[in-house]
Design a protein that fits this description.
alpha/beta, nine-stranded mixed beta sheet, 2 domains
Length: 483
């Protein structure tokens, strides 16, 4: 038999559709290229992005998993103090849905702030005694006291805030920015992630990979997680007997084979694999330098607190975030778990604040003194707040807790084009509902993109016949917080 005919007999169905000029593979490729642009240009970002001059070039998101208690940290409510131990007024609750741990909120007792609040700086921002270091930078940050969301449980609320959808499968904010803007450093990923949790906490959350996923975007845009160790990225070291020159030659040969397959099939995941191999090679040189703190002064290290040299701590990750930012990484996402104080606002909340307060403030101060804060947006906050009413027994103070509260909560931002020493929005006099200038999660996302020069309605990706975006079909830029 003719060898060509023999080969044709053994072509699989998948190969046939992949190779066929009029087949499904080419049709799918044409559809992707119509919306995806030239794959080779994607590493540098889209050609029409940014849409206008950005105020920020990069983002450091200090994400506090578990829902920090806004009424104990940032949102001062004298009436809450006065109503301690009294039932929550029914008119504040209505038909609101809470987690199954609260169920029906009727009759729950109001719980006063655990630590006293004081005003700080020229801005007069109210900050709790839990956070003395954050209080010291009150004139550098913009507080938003009117954020609200739609989910009452952690994973869907985190996913909603980071991706615009409560179910896994959508690109997260870092992936969108990596896709749209690319990176200023070809030796480090555009989107880096680090996680931490306070030691001994009983209220940690799981760090799901989809919190930094690329969803339906090509996987090259997903976050690269750095491990909590002095060796943050696995498999960067060459095995015994392999020199760097040998590694280079080996990768070049693999790249040529992959390029042949890419030309044959047009699968964007092949392009991703080529890019990932090349990035890993470059990171063999860039990561050891990145994690070497020997060039940091003692004064700089002191800004971040005593845990700064301990890999895996929030303090260590904050210093790493600054080093990544000054090297041009677009989006650094630090996730710190342990804020889920259902029965420990009088105990574990102290540890949580001690571990995160000084590093967060130190990061802002460090960026400011280096001239990086003006174009670096720092965000601090969680997926929701905590209930102003008590979860637990009012007579058992060591086990006082607060449940999840999505209807009003606080975050703060610094640098990157937001007003310094500014407060926006208000919750009601008990911190339960929005009283004025509400900021929905999609509004927050639209504002984040705007600060980086992106019109949130124009950064889209076609998937399954629809143009998707981070803000779904919602969102308004909060102009009042822009500097």
């Amino acid at each position: 038999m003719n060898p060509l005919d023999e080969n044709a007999r053994h072509v699989s169905r998948r190969e046939f559709f992949g190779r066929s000029a009029t087949g499904l593979g080419t049709a799918a490729l044409a559809s992707m290229l119509a919306t995806d642009g030239q794959a080779a240009n994607r590493i540098a970002g889209l050609s029409d992005v940014p849409h206008f001059k950005p105020k920020a070039q990069r983002v450091i998101y200090l994400f506090q998993n578990g829902g920090p208690t806004h009424v104990d940290l940032f949102d001062y409510k004298p009436k809450l103090q006065a109503m301690h131990g009294q039932p929550v007024p029914a008119e504040y609750i209505g038909e609101k849905r809470f987690s199954t741990m609260t169920g029906n909120a009727s009759g729950k007792l109001m719980l006063a702030p655990v630590e006293p609040f004081r005003q700080h700086g020229q801005s007069g921002a109210w900050v709790s005694g839990f956070l003395p270091h954050t209080a010291s930078i009150a004139d550098d940050v913009c507080f938003i006291h009117s954020l609200h969301t739609e989910q009452v449980n952690h994973a869907p609320a985190i996913q909603f805030l980071l991706s615009g959808g409560e179910q896994p499968g959508r690109p997260t904010a870092g992936a969108w920015l990596s896709y749209g803007l690319g990176s200023d450093n070809d030796s480090l990923p555009a989107f880096c992630v680090m996680t931490s949790v306070s030691k001994g906490t009983s209220c940690g959350q799981i760090f799901y990979d989809f919190y930094w996923g690329s969803g339906f975007l090509p996987s090259r845009f997903q976050g690269v997680k750095f491990r909590a160790s002095s060796d943050p990225v696995l498999y960067l070291q060459n095995p015994d007997g392999m020199t760097r020159r040998m590694r280079r030659n080996w990768l070049d040969d693999i790249a040529r084979l992959n390029e042949l397959k890419l030309a044959d099939y047009g699968d964007p995941e092949i392009a991703t694999r080529i890019a990932q191999y090349e990035m890993a090679y470059k990171m063999q040189a860039s990561v050891p330098e990145l994690t070497d703190f020997s060039d940091e002064t003692e004064a700089t290290l002191a800004l971040y607190g005593p845990q700064v040299k301990e890999p895996g701590t929030f303090a260590y990750n904050c210093l790493m975030a600054r080093r990544l930012a000054e090297r041009g990484v677009r989006f650094v996402q630090l996730m710190h778990a342990g804020w889920d104080q259902h029965g420990s606002v009088t105990t574990e909340l102290y540890t949580q604040c001690k571990d995160t307060d000084q590093p967060s403030a130190g990061l802002v101060q460090d960026l400011k003194q280096r001239g990086l804060l003006d174009d670096t947006l720092v965000i601090w906050g969680g997926e929701f707040g905590r209930t102003p009413f008590l979860q637990g027994n009012i007579d058992d103070r060591p086990k006082w807790g607060r449940d999840h509260h999505p209807y009003a909560f606080s975050i703060w931002m610094a640098g990157g084009g937001v007003k310094a020493g500014f407060q926006y929005g208000q919750s009601d006099d008990l911190g339960i509902n929005i009283a004025s200038d509400g900021v929905h999660v999609h509004d927050f996302q639209a504002t984040l993109l705007h600060l980086l020069g992106i019109d949130h309605e124009r950064l889209t990706y076609r998937f399954q016949g629809r143009d998707f975006r981070l803000t779904d079909v919602h969102g308004k830029v909060v102009q009042a917080v822009l500097a």
